[in-house]
Specification:
Elements lengths: L2 H13 L6 E5 L3 H15 L4 E5 L2 H9 L13 E6 L3 E2 L5 E2 L6 H9 L1 E9 L12 E5 L4 H14 L6 E3 L15 E5 L7 H9 L4 E4 L1 E2 L5 E6 L2 E6 L1
Parallel strand pairs: 1-2, 1-3, 3-6, 6-12
Antiparallel strand pairs: 4-5, 5-11, 7-9, 7-10, 8-9, 12-13
The chain binds ribulose-5-phosphate (5RP).
Length: 231
């Protein structure tokens, strides 16, 4: 089965958890896109919900489908966020940010009572770290921040480089918040909690893509069906 079909199956499972009147966080990426599409069908059929998108791309998709949108300023507490992930590790630890939306994704997930991740089975790993860890940084002082992130990465046994993410045209990718993204290839992340703390201690780091103790459930679609993983 195609990976895209698996993503849609996982999205459909997450949709079964949506109840009328819920306040929802809407993730970003190709898997979350399926969820938003399916939610749009339910809204068209009369479902009442209020949603906070985690990116401008998702906001545009949701608005186009007629999904009612709000902000965390108006609605600071959400019932459920459904999002994708780049890696799902032990204890439902996650790497996110492949789509450069990690900052808003983390803020929205943290504002939600529950977070469900939807993915195809290729995303499940042990340990985390094959996918380069996205780190959102302020534009000011990029060279100095990169060096300090590199030192943290080396101290945590990184096997690869820390690189500035570039877009197709070769220019730096700029996030919805106006920041840049560094991608740090670790190979294996042995101690995600300590790495998270060390990255947060680097001035200029706005946020990183390690999502720890945020995800409550994952629906993982594979060739043999959908696995439910609970934290
Ligand atoms: C965006 C993300 C995405 O959820 C992550 O990159 C997974 O994307 P996809 O569903 O396309 O594989 O974190 O910032």
């Amino acid at each position: 089965m195609l990976s895209d079909d698996l993503k849609r199956q996982a999205a459909a499972m997450a949709l079964t958890e949506v109840q009328p009147g819920m306040r929802l966080g809407l993730g970003t990426g190709s898997t979350a896109r399926h969820f938003v599409d399916l939610l749009g069908e339910r809204v068209r059929d009369g479902l009442d919900c209020l949603c906070v998108p985690t990116s401008e791309v998702t906001a545009a998709q949701a608005a186009g489908l007629g999904i009612p949108l709000t902000t965390l300023d108006e609605t600071p507490e959400l019932d459920l966020t459904v999002d994708g992930a780049d890696e799902i590790g032990p204890g439902l630890s996650l790497i996110k940010g492949g789509g450069a939306a990690l900052l808003r994704e983390k803020i929205v997930a943290a504002a939600s009572r529950r977070m469900i991740v939807i993915a195809d089975a290729s995303k499940v790993v042990d340990p985390l770290g094959k996918f380069p860890l996205p780190i959102e940084v302020n534009r000011f002082g990029l060279g100095a921040t990169s060096r300090m992130v590199g030192a943290v990465a080396a101290a945590h046994g990184a096997t690869g480089a820390v690189t500035l993410r570039l877009g197709k045209a070769g220019d730096p990718v700029v996030t919805d918040g106006g920041h840049l993204i560094l991608d740090a290839l670790f190979g294996r992340i042995f101690n995600p909690e300590a790495l998270s703390a060390d990255l947060h201690n680097v001035p200029g780091v706005v946020e990183h893509g390690l999502f720890l103790r945020l995800c409550d459930r994952a629906y993982v679609a594979g060739a043999n069906g959908i696995e439910t993983m609970d934290a």
